[in-house]
Queue: 4 jobs
Job 1
Amino acid sequence: MDSEAANFGRSPISIEVTILHLSDVHFGSAHSSAAASALVRFAHRKRPSAVVISGDLTQRAKVREYRAARAFLDGLAEYPVVVTAGNHDVPLYRVGERILAPFRNYRRHIEVALDTVTDVVPGPGDDRGARFVALNSTSPRTAIVNGRLRRRQLELAERSFGDAPPGFLRVLVVHHNLIDPEDGSYGTPLRRARRVLDALPGWGVDMVLGGHVHRATLAESTAGVPVLLAGTATSTRGRGPERGRTSLNWIRVRSDGIEVKVHFFSSEAGFCPEWGRSFGAP
């Protein structure tokens, strides 16, 4: 891949973009309906430019779980929604289905395409906005937990970011984490994550959004690209410092920088900010 050309002619971000970043909602036995209801209220109050859900919509990829996830997404339908699959969105114990038709329920209820390119713009024909490239990092036959990205997916990302208008925000979305969580506990990165991280500057990527580790991590790659992991937004499966807690990331992008605030759910107050981090201008 020739990653040098993709960043040619890049202009500063020309509009403010707000992103509601969720992950690991886990409809099923671990799901919190109270957190889900509060999350929808939060979205309608904040009115984001886009909602990103970085995988694990379900707990066991069952039809009833996907139907509940679909109803949840329909409640956010007035906003552009970018979604990708996670390892829990393919069957684990239904081995025959995992081998022969791992994405059948995901395609039927969520999205037919597994890798997507979504442009969010203020109005028709506008040359300002954001491009989200969401890549399916699940690998149901070879790397069930840790996932992988294939060369053709990286080539799709390179082309898609390279074709984006110069002033667009460029966001890569994958479920599996490309970096170690900051506390060094559970969360082995995606297989061959380094080659993806090394490609980001050449693609002109402004940030990476992911999940999988069930706790928020706001970090930078060695090249200075923000890599933002969201916790579990609506389940009881938080890990490490977020054990038993649910959280989401609220991201605001301006020409002068990126601000991320991690919000945690409480039954009394809904989702409220507790900590965050700022990054330099994209």
Job 2
Amino acid sequence: MRLKNKVAVITGAAQGIGRATALKFAKEGAKIVVTDMMLDALNETIEEVMGLGAEVLAYAANVVNKDEMEKVVEDVISKWNKIDILVNNAGITADNQLLKMPEEDFDKVIAVNLKGVYNCSQVVAKVMAEQGSGVILNASSIVGIYGNFGQTNYAATKWGVIGMTKTWAKELGKKGIRVNAVAPGFILTPMVKKMPDKVLDMMRDKSPLKDLGLPEDVANAYAFLASDEARFITGAVLSVDGGVVL
């Protein structure tokens, strides 16, 4: 097991990529800490993780609120004395074209997708720096690299996450902390599954593999980057997109 006895904090773990990552890490032997605001769905994640025999802590914590995340970290440290991995997965969308986007929609996406990553990383990085080791993994997107129609706010956050990833890799490497990002393409999350079939078919056709990704595909990338197999990888952005941007 690649992550045996590692303590992994995963935000936005109630469903989709976050849940898949929690389950993958549990299978790899990690102790799991999950956070989300969707409590019913989070309970399902907890049950599945426990069903794999893994230890798990769960919190209804909002990444926008740094005080809440500090309390989560304090509790995890009191329980397990360390945090080895942070996966900044929590994110939202509020799509609209530039000329139609309400300011509040821009602000709330920035708050969760960008400020939330900053909040969680700063709190956890302090612990990792004292330990002299750790891995921070950030959820970017191909939208953050190439842009996308109707996603000014989302694209801005995901590009910003790449900038933070590379900056933190430079700052934290000397403290034994690796920082990387994953940039998923079209992944069959609950949100994507709600799209019309013709849109999903169009996205499949754009991929050389003629397929859409699964949450497990992204979780597998996170598991590799979190493991010692990736010990010499930092500041990288790993695209998990089926070649859709080729």
Job 3
Amino acid sequence: MLPGLAEIADKVRRTEVSAEQLVLRSLETIKAKNSSLNAFCAVFDEAAVAEARRCDREAAAGRFRGPLHGIPVGVKDLFLTKGRRTARGSRAFRDFVPEESAPVVERVEAAGAILLGKTTTTEFGWSGSSVSELYGPTRNPWDPALTSGGSSSGSAVAVASGMVPFALGSDGGGSVRIPASFCGIFAMKGSLARIPTYPWSATEMLSHAGPITRTAADSALLFNILKGPDPRDHNALPDDGLDYLESEVDIGSLRIGFAPTLFDKPVDPEVAGAIERSIDRIAQAFGIEVAELHPGWRDPIRIFETLWVAGRGVAYGRSAADGEQAFGAGFGALVRAAQDYGLADYLDAMKDRARFAAEVHGLFEELDLLLMPTVPILPFEAELEAPAGYPGDSTVLPWTAWTPFTYPFNLTGNPAASLPVGSASSGLPIGLQVVGRRYSDHRVLAFCRALEALFPVRLAEETESVPAQARRGASQESSRNVEAQR
């Protein structure tokens, strides 16, 4: 098992490993794997090595920038990086070089991290798939023929394949949790505005920034660095004052529910089986009862679709210097669809969002944590937005057909994590989603840290490969199994 961030940082402080060694190791892995996986869309090799040498000189003098001193990081191409191109996965911004960095980038760099490069994303992060029409699809390290999930696709693959120890991602409808589940690693979106986001987004009521890591412990360390207000984000929450690495939870005292599905959506039998076995194991290991629940909520897809399409379509449609022709097919269709929404539609969606959120928050008056599958299916072909023949309720957002368990908690702002807890017969990883009450980020992370003793992380780079053909056959069977249940 590869060392965690705290262990890496300790080795740097003890001069057992240098920042330059860490960066060169990452660059070697990128050189070996990126051509087949497409995790990075830009690599700053010379600048990263030079920065690593500066970190090593500082370390030799006993000076350390912070808890991430000399550790390389990948940053999703949606985040502003000062002096570095931020194309946002779009031809419309292919020449955009910002004059400032996003708060999350500033904070990891201030803590000593070294920016290694920008990671691939879908255009403006519009989709939960890994299809980038600018850079090509990002591919799953367990089988490059399959999707990694998105839109923080490159960040997840960079971590799961060992290119970097951690990366930054964003989540507006599941975009850190989906690829974490498909790639077998950990990611959590905190409570809405726990980590500040900037620049302003037309979907600010949905969008979260956060780390993608190998483990929940690594994520807790990073949340300590990333959380807290920034004046550029008017929604940003005050720092809760908690040390997420030190936060503990008495699991025996928690009220935990398990939802095998939501909205009566079908779940692939292999996914369902792995999740149910994980629930049984959790209950047995901690001597607790996990109550099976079937929340009577209505699928909020129309609410999400209105806010996602109308907000992004209008905002980005106005900002593209080259007009609509600069967009790819998927995002271009979203921009055109946005013209069909009026102010009344948008305000109705905001009102309905409040009602749906109140229902969800009401359940958490009776529960501390809700567990469920992160994604109801296994990864499918990397070139697709959705599995072939897989129907959904949105023609504009085909990816929402197979992500019905993630976007609801963007609407409500609850902290939600994806933790790898099992695998399909093909070897493909399966994630358990852990959802907490609003503002209980520390509890979700503490619970997930406790679960990692039961479900050790299996990284793709450390696991003997299952033949790709077998995995693809299993993935296709997964789609057929789910379709048969509809």
Job 4
Amino acid sequence: MKKITGYLRLMRPANIVTSVADVLAGATIAGFFGRQPPSQTPACLAIGIPVSALALSTIGLYGGGVVFNDVFDAELDAIERPERPIPSGLIKRPEAALLGTALLILGILSAFAITPLTGGLAALIALAALLYDKWGKHHTILGPLNMGLCRGLNLLLGISVLPAALAQHGAIALVPVLYIASITMISRGEVHGSGRNLLYFAAGLYAIVIGCIGAVATEKDTVLLTLPFLLFFAWMIFRPLAKAIQEPIGKNIGRAVKAGVIALILMNASWAAAFDSLYLALIIVLLLPLSLWLARLFAVT
């Protein structure tokens, strides 16, 4: 049982839930849920199979990516975070590498089951994740952008459920790139703390992200529908960030990072609302208590 728990700790289950929210938001942006299914196919199957396959794909891709993060960081974690599964000896490094490989393969194959395009995007996500785990995280600017790229591609994975929507809405993926880059940037202060200027800069990037979603909602004439989700999102990310700015110690920064990651669910719900899908926005919000519960059991960062 301890071994199974160790594997789950490596996979960051609370974070995986947020990646599923990315796919749901992407499919909503694409207009997939408003599509009329073929008359000879039950609606639940026509809608459920592609989205379920992409949800399984993102579970494998995200899980595999974070497992390899710990595989490559084993020596550093032995110093800074010895309680993690690999440095503590609960999971051997080759065992973790095998798990990460299996998850990435699952993620890629599940996406290829839909179309070659979705499979290609999944392969790009896996590659971007491994590049970040091995090299990207060590670069001050390229590292956050690399991590943001993983999330942007994950949103595109959801949008690609209707390939034609990529050309129309693909630029939206730049928003999660910016958001995750800002979180990754401040996460470097989780252990030793950080300067306030970096946190203020992250706050500015958060405001730009909120502004982008608001601009899309204004264009779609869905501001009133989007506003409650967007305000909830803003409250969840700015409240811990403000505390970290007041006292920029590792513990407070870690809480701000954790809130920022889990709040991706609310950002995705805001996207669904902006694209005039209240019921999808509410479904995505229902993932929040699940992610919060898992975050109590397993580390987020």
